[in-house]
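Fill in residues.
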């Protein structure tokens, strides 16, 4: 493999690694995929450094050329359906070793897959929020009010996520608006306990997955990656606390 071919292959491999991270794969898994792909294509002395927002890879070709590429990874929305197909793609690429053009076509095919229907997102959010709400003593009226709030929350969250990636600001805005709505519903009799409704709201925003991934990264000695995940989760939690607290302070005359 000459320098040009190796450079193109490495570029596509980093594209695959980037999509792994954006789709929700843990860092160690994404890094392992890049190593396996580079090894399958005969790239030697592979060195990969990967965190949540950055990929750096240096490889050596059969001809002795050294190639280094760096990739910034923008934050993305978790997509486990895409991640499943990316897994299949990486295994197939390791087994068949297609050329750069074919590997690019295979990746583009995965990225072009239609998104899952939006009603699944609403259904999942309703099951999670209302389920936790009922577990923590929501009655029928509270559950109905929470259901309406969740539908509004998912719709608004999808719009807000396109313009705001900071977890503190994102969670603060959403939790503030949803808590205002919860208190307003209770004040007009559509629901009885805003505190119980709030529990369902919090369950959709709290970043448990990111926090646990961060702990796992720390245990795997990926200190920087783990620290980033944990800090993002803490910032998101602070946003929830700030948003709900401001809503309660503003609406205390109504409660």
């Amino acid at each position: 493999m000459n320098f040009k071919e190796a450079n193109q292959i490495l570029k596509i491999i980093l594209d695959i690694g980037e999509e792994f991270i954006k789709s929700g794969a843990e860092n160690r898994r994404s890094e392992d995929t890049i190593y396996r792909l580079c090894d399958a294509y005969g790239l030697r002395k592979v060195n990969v450094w990967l965190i949540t927002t950055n990929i750096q890879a240096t490889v050596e070709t059969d001809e002795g050329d050294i190639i280094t590429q760096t990739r910034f990874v923008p934050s993305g929305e978790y997509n486990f359906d895409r991640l499943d197909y990316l897994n299949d793609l990486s295994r197939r690429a390791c087994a068949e070793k297609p050329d750069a053009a074919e590997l690019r076509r295979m990746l583009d095919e995965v990225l072009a897959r239609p998104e899952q229907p939006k009603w699944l997102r609403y259904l999942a959010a309703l099951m999670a929020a209302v389920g936790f709400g009922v577990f923590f003593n929501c009655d029928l009226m509270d559950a109905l009010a929470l259901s309406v709030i969740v539908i509004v929350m998912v719709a608004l969250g999808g719009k807000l996520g396109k313009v705001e990636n900071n977890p503190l600001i994102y969670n603060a805005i959403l939790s503030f608006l949803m808590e205002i709505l919860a208190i307003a519903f209770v004040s007009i009799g559509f629901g009885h306990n805003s505190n119980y409704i709030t529990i369902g709201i919090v369950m959709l925003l709290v970043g448990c997955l990111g926090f646990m991934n961060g702990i796992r990264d720390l245990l795997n000695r990926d200190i920087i990656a783990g620290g980033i995940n944990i800090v993002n989760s803490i910032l998101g939690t602070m946003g929830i606390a700030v948003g709900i607290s401001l809503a309660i302070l503003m609406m205390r005359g109504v409660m």
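The chain has a mean pLDDT of 86.
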